[in-house]
Amino acid sequence: MGGINQGSGYTYEKSQNGVSLDILPQASGSNNHPFKVILVKDGTTWKFKVVPGTVNSKVPTLDGTLLDNNPAPAKSLGSASGYVYLDMTYNEGSGFPDTFTVEYDTSVPADTDTKAHVALAYIDFSSAIPKKTAQYVSTSLWGERLKCGSSTAEYYFSRA
Fewer CB atoms near the end CB (10 Å): N or C, the chain? Predict the structure, then answer.
């Protein structure tokens, strides 16, 4: 009887306790949508990719690379559960968002006068294999920044 071979879309590990088969999510197909977070395994490192989406017709970056680049950028998860989120900057005289990136951290920062944040997904790393347990955004977005007097700016987002 032949052994199991590594293949495209799955990996396996064999130990004294048995065999573990990991079926990895695919980044292609018609079930993708803007800002969909996809987990991928690169050797022994877990990373995430984000399907390109826009806010006010602008594409964000992930570690300095536009999401719609080919090949798509990927970011390491580390080993802590957390949120994949958009970090958007407002600069007076520029359209909102002026610049924005996709980030990963254990929490989503609070909005400020010059920064807005939108959670895209939550990744649970409580076991050896991370799992995306929530996908909060499934479309491109339209966003507005409103500021009245000395009050902290407020941000509103809707489906594009």
Answer: N
